[in-house]
Design goal:
- It is a single chain.
- This protein is an alpha+beta fold.
- It contains 26 helices and 23 strands.
- A hairpin with a 6-residue loop joins strand 8 and strand 9.
- The longest helix is centred in the middle third of the chain and has 21 residues, at 429-449.
- Mean pLDDT is 82; it is low at 548-558, 560-581, 595-605 and 607-612.
- The chain binds zinc ion.
- Zinc ion binds next to loops.
Length: 666
């Protein structure tokens, strides 16, 4: 429908630029350029008597006598008549078909335009205020002004998102079409920003014990009365977990994955850690390191945690970056549920200050890209994985170790057993809902206990971390024993240390002899450096192959067992490779762990047979008798361990030890 169609040919007078007619209300006819001017291109009209302009809808109203020409739109104003007030009357007067035709012909754009008539020409400009108010009325928008940049938030489905800028531009485009020029959109944006400015202090107040998820809000403020609430913009949430709350959901695949990946005693702590991500607050000053070799499920665990908190709700700062504590890096923790970093490097931490600040409820100063500084309370929980825990320079920093939960992952999955689809099976809607239910349950038990399940003492954490991160410490703990009067040459110590590092899984790069000499006494304080003639020694120390607690006793048993089969012809004449006990020790540890995981229910004797029959055991036995060792030692009173081992193999240490106990030798 065009405005011309509203008039008969007789009513219209052609002018140089279009048509004019008699004003349907006041009857003004006017001269050559005056009267009731019709602008057919934009479907508008103008009465020179009232000085008002009309859009298509209003001209219909005018013709039907529903409005007077004085009720038109002022020059420099956009239309004010509410269409809804006249629709019924138009329908009554002209019929439904006409109304439908009219409504489909009206361009909403004219609601937001201001007309300017000069002579018989009309021009339009955008009514910035009206467009801004329309957008503010139809959307929830809040603006936080910054020094160099403003953040425009818009609310949808429970959360305020930083999508206001895009939304306003799109809406302006939608409303104004060809009139949405860049400068106009910019003016609208600025107007909306000014009209929706909110105090940052108010806007950042988010309930600490409520968590927004996909279908509502979980209220855990009272652990004895956990509540389920509707989404609301009043909570000021900026983030929500990508989880649907369903109190009947279960997570059988995740349960199975946890059983295969973590030690049974760690699983409650793992679930409590998921629960710790529910509050918007860093309640317990703890961070997690899941450490272990490759193919033990670390990355799957990290991906599961990321899916639980939402990929967009996490950041990935390394421990080293956090520790340095640059405000530019720390800013990325803001409004995040988690900081998750997979495969941490083993590079030293020069300081722990930033880390201690970032773990816990303290204020952090962040710096945004354009130099806005602001402080915020961090609530992003830190989880890291690594092969080797990075060492810290100040190993006596107790407060640092006190902040860690450590989980060892060592159940290596063979390539052929690997389920490449595992992460998809763990992160279905149902599984994540089930995990969320468990996380809530374990959160309750965590908050009631007020510390994590079987939390390790600070000293124990320190020892595990120092040991993991540091070849000297690991070597000293695993291989050295204090033995007053014993000596090991520095050459031999370094050889043993290099062997040890190479035999580790994953391998550790050995350090130089000079570095070993400087560092070793820190981790084995009983060592005394000494020398006689040209040879340099460590005093008060011996190298032990059967240390390491329970693993040692397994080897002892193995040796006993081998002595019983001493007469077995097959066992004789087997050359002993160097350090075979160490690799045996490792094999046994691995197998024991695997077997305890799989909960083998075979009879114990069968399990023992499995141990005894592994090929490595063949190498324990010395190719000699105790008497031969005794005779040789008597002939070589100045012998050292290396010479003994080269002569008789590694098992001869056992004979040597027995001879000492029997006081046959010193
Ligand atoms: Zn008029």
């Amino acid at each position: 429908m065009n405005i011309i169609d509203l008039f008969t040919k007789e009513e219209l007078t052609e002018t140089s630029s279009g048509y004019k007619t008699i004003c349907p209300h006041c009857g003004l006819q006017g001269g050559r350029t005056e009267g009731f001017i019709i602008f057919s291109e934009s479907d508008t009209a103008y009465c020179h008597s009232s000085g008002k302009w009309f859009n298509l809808f209003q001209v219909v109203c005018l013709k039907l006598g529903l409005i007077q020409c004085i009720e038109g739109n002022e020059k420099g104003e956009s239309p004010n008549i509410e269409k809804e007030d006249y629709i019924e009357q138009i329908k009554e007067a002209k019929g439904e078909e006409f109304l439908n035709d009219l409504q489909s012909s009206i361009e909403d754009i004219f609601d937001f335009l201001i007309a300017e008539v000069i002579g018989n020409k009309i021009t339009y400009k955008v009514d910035i205020d009206k467009v801004s108010d329309h957008i503010i009325k139809n959307f929830d928008i809040k603006t936080i002004t910054g020094i160099k940049n403003d953040d425009i938030y818009t609310y949808k489905d429970g959360v305020w998102m930083l999508k206001g800028r895009g939304l306003i531009k799109a809406e302006a485009e939608q409303l104004l079409g060809r009139y949405a020029k860049n400068n106009i959109v910019y003016e609208i944006l600025e107007k909306i920003k000014r009209k929706t400015t909110t105090s940052i202090e108010e806007f950042e107040k988010v309930p600490e014990y409520k968590r927004c998820v996909m279908n509502g809000v979980l209220d855990i403020e009272d652990v004895n009365n956990i509540k389920w609430l509707e989404h609301s913009k009043e909570y000021n949430f900026k983030i929500k977990l990508p989880i649907y709350y369903d109190d009947e959901a279960k997570c059988p695949n995740i349960d199975k994955f946890f059983e295969e990946t973590f030690y049974p005693e760690d699983i409650p702590q793992v679930l409590e850690w998921f629960g710790h991500h529910i509050p918007n607050k860093y309640i317990f000053k703890k961070a997690v390191i899941a450490h272990g070799p490759k193919h033990t499920g670390k990355t799957v665990f990290i991906n599961l945690l990321s899916s639980f908190v939402g990929d967009g709700n996490k950041t990935g700062l390394s421990l080293q970056k956090i520790s340095v504590g640059k405000s530019f890096d720390l800013h990325s923790l803001k409004n995040k549920v988690a900081n998750i970093h997979d495969d941490l490097s083993s590079k030293d931490l020069s300081e722990a200050g930033g880390f201690k600040m970032a773990v816990g409820d303290g204020y952090i100063t962040g710096e945004k890209k354009f130099g806005d500084y602001h402080t915020f309370k961090n609530s992003a929980k830190h989880t890291f994985t690594c092969n080797i825990i990075p060492p810290i320079n100040d190993i006596d920093d107790e407060a640092y170790y006190d902040r860690w939960l450590l989980w060892e992952l060592d159940n290596v999955i063979d390539k052929k057993d690997k389920n490449i689809n595992l992460i998809n099976e763990l992160t279905t809607k149902e599984e994540l809902s089930g995990l969320f239910n468990k996380a809530i349950m374990y959160w309750v038990s965590l908050i009631k206990r007020n510390y994590f399940y079987k939390e390790k003492e600070c000293e124990e954490i320190k020892s595990l971390m120092v040991k993991s991160g540091n070849s000297y410490s690991k070597f000293a703990t695993d291989m050295l024993v204090e033995e007053i009067g014993s000596k090991v040459t520095k050459e031999e110590m370094h050889n043993q240390y290099c062997h040890y590092c190479n035999s580790q899984e994953p391998k550790i790069s050995p350090q130089t002899k000079t570095n070993l000499g400087k560092q070793l006494p820190r981790y084995a304080p009983y060592l005394i450096s000494s020398k006689s003639n040209s040879e340099r020694y460590w005093l008060n120390v011996n190298i032990s192959y059967t240390k390491r607690g329970t693993e040692g006793t397994v080897i002892e048993k193995a040796i006993e067992r081998l002595e019983k089969v001493d007469n077995d012809a097959n066992m004789k004449h087997i050359k002993l490779p160097k350090l075979s006990l160490l690799s045996l020790d490792k094999t046994i540890t691995k197998r024991r762990k695997k077997m305890s995981r799989k909960r083998v229910t075979k009879k114990r004797t069968e399990r023992e047979i499995q141990y005894w029959e592994i090929p490595e055991f063949k190498n324990i036995k010395p190719e000699c008798t105790k008497q031969e060792v005794y005779d040789w030692i008597n002939k070589h009173p100045d012998y050292n361990h290396k010479e003994l081992r080269d002569k008789f193999g590694i098992g001869s240490y056992k004979f040597e030890k027995e001879l000492k106990e029997e006081e046959k030798i010193k």
